[in-house]
Structure formats: C-alpha cells, structure tokens
Amino acid sequence: PVRSKSRKCRFLKANVTSISFPSKTLHCAPAFDDDTDPITNQPFTLTYDYLILAPGCIPNTFNTPGVAEHALFMKNVSDAMATRKLLFDLLEKASLPTCSPARKSELLHVAIVGGGPTGVEITAELDDLANHELRDLYPDVAPYLHISIYDVAPHILGAYDRKLHEYANERLVRRHVAVETNTRIEMVDKDALWVKGKGRVPYGMLMWVTGNKATELVMGMRDVRRSEQGLVRLLTDSHLRLFKDRDSEDVWEGVFALGDAADIDGQSLPTTAEVAVQKAKYLTHFFNSRSKGSFNVPASLPFTYTEKQLVSYIGSRDGIIAGRGDREGWTGRSAWLAWRSGSVMWTRSWRNRIVILLTWVLNWFFGKEIAKM
C-alpha cells in the first residue's frame, strides 16, 4: 500500500490533468468515482522541485464498438475485484432452478481477448479455480464453465519461440480451453461478442487484455519528445530525464519519466514491470545520493537494462520460461516454481512475503478460501 507507517510520504488521491513544465506546476483533480460533492471535487494545483512521471497506460480497445462499455480490463485492484464479483454472480445465476442448460453454458462462458502473457495467465488461474475449488462449491454448474482465448495473431504468447508457444497452446487445448487465433472481434454487446467469420458468440464475462494505449495526460503534454510509431511514449535520455522536444537535446529540469508511458530514446525497451522496477531502483539511487550531497545526474552512469527471462504460468502447475543466449527455454513444473518464486521476490516487504508463503501452505492443505477471494 502507498500509505504505510514505515513510509514517510504525502499521498493525494487525484489525477494530474495537465503539467506546466516551465512553471513546475501540476494541475490536478480529485479521483473519486461518482462523487458529486462540489467541495471534494474542486481542482487544485501543486508545485514541484523534482517530478517523476509514471502515469502508465490505459487498455487499447482498438476502437472496437462496445468494448469500453461491456468488457472488463485488468489494470488495477478495482478491476480484479469487479472480475471476482461478476464471476460469482454468474455462478449463482447459473445455479438457479429456472436456468436452462443452454443458458448456463452462455453465462459461464469466459471470453478473454488477448493471447499475451496476461491473457494466458488469467486463463490459467481461472481454469485452475474451475477445476478445483469451484467443483466443490458449485458441483452442479462448475462443469459448464468454459474459457476461450481470442487473438488476432497467428499464435498466442508471441514473445516466446515457436517450441514454447506451441507447447502452451497444446496444454491449454488439452484442458479444454478454446484457443481462437487469427480471430478479429468486430463488435461487442452486453452479452455477446461478434467474431469475424463466426458471427455472434454469447459470453457471461468478457476480459479485454489486448495491449496498451497512451493516457490523455501523455497525449496532451506540450513541448516534450514522444515516440512516433506504435505505442506513444515519452522519450528520455539515458539518465531518464525527459526531453523537451524532437528538435532539441535539452531536457526539462528536474523531470524524470519511467514505466510503460516512457522509453529511452533509441532503445525501445519493453513495457514490462521488470523494466519499470530497474528504472525505479536507478532513480532511487540518485535521490538517495542527493540526500548525501552527491547528486549529479549528468556525471552519473547511464541507465542500463538487464534483461531477464520471460516466465509465464499456463495452468495446472505448468509454465514456460524463455531461453536466453545459447540456453534453451524450458517447460513444466520447474518453470511453474520459478514463476511462483517470482511472486514472492516481487513483493517489497518481508511481512507480505511471509503472508504469501503461509497462504500457499494453507491452500496446499485446505484449498483456497473462496469466501475471501
């Protein structure tokens, strides 16, 4: 959490709507959904000495009609909570005596659009849940739950080599997951998606995890350098300082950028959490050095990204790990264990690491406690 007894910082729940770099001013608006109180909704401004931009991205719907209104996304905790609520609502609806078998199948069709690591890992977790805990809690309707992955690409997990993505595809199909590649979604309504060449496909839950798009804040920034192809990202120098514009090598004083919304000019680093974490550690080192009186960005070593192996979970305690250099990738339970260990190491506090490990042990013996999911 941002607020913590061990963390000395001031947190404001607000959106930055625009930035004036010359005057070092942020224009902000409170970020509370459905709040009509004129007092708590008043915009305000903040000034800064140093600014670190990490606005992230928003889901890319590719202007597909109906997606923004009817699909679930997976960007934050609120998205996860909405997914949980809808899934169990659908299971309860399907359990009603008035629900026909055909309607049960429609309600419990989970359609996932996007065959990248996020889409595949969501599929894996839902499939594990359906084949274990849900079969005990909803024995009459759990067998009706089925999952489909749709992707416009010729295969899922395109970042992996052919051997690995074919292995993942075969394993998912074996567990009765419908993998629909070379598929284009034409439109979406509240209970069906329209697939080119297939027509209407009913669903109960639609999850859209196809990629990223720049936020309004990034698109609205003036006098900054941005990428011109693909995902629009803010461009920085090798010290993560934000460039003023494409025709100048000048940077904005005290402004740094990282995360999915930023890239180092000429490097085209991937939009992954690993890149963001390494950049954050780099900047943390500089600000800690500044507090000791030795903060000097131009004289410091430039940021260098250390590439780590891609790891994806594909369900049923199975995973894939991409190769690196001359070393081939591998699959199976050892890859799953590597993926699980990464979940522990990503956690920033030892307390949370211990809680995660204890939860895994309890789940191993007693199963997941669905009531708290």
Structure description:
The protein contains ten helices and 20 strands. Helix content is 31%, strand content 22%. The protein is globular and about 65 Å long. Helix 6 links the parallel strand 7 (146-150) and strand 8 (178-180). The longest helix is centred in the C-terminal third of the chain and has 19 residues, at 273-291. The model has no long low-confidence stretch (mean pLDDT 90). With 373 residues, the protein is an alpha/beta fold. Helix 2 (77-94) packs antiparallel against helix 3 (101-107). It has helices at residues 67-70, 77-94, 101-107, 117-131, 133-137, 162-174, 216-220, 273-291, 333-346, 350-366; strands at 14-20, 25-30, 44-47, 51-53, 58-59, 109-113, 146-150, 178-180, 185-189, 192-195, 199-202, 205-208, 212-213, 234-236, 241-243, 251-257, 262-264, 311-315, 318-321, 330-332. The strands form seven sheets. The protein has a four-stranded parallel β-sheet. The chain has a three-stranded antiparallel β-sheet with strand order 1-2-3.
Furnish the topology, listing elements before pairings.
Elements: E1 14-20, E2 25-30, E3 44-47, E4 51-53, E5 58-59, H1 67-70, H2 77-94, H3 101-107, E6 109-113, H4 117-131, H5 133-137, E7 146-150, H6 162-174, E8 178-180, E9 185-189, E10 192-195, E11 199-202, E12 205-208, E13 212-213, H7 216-220, E14 234-236, E15 241-243, E16 251-257, E17 262-264, H8 273-291, E18 311-315, E19 318-321, E20 330-332, H9 333-346, H10 350-366
Parallel strand pairs: 4-16, 6-7, 6-12, 7-8, 14-17
Antiparallel strand pairs: 1-2, 2-3, 5-13, 9-10, 10-11, 15-16, 18-19, 19-20
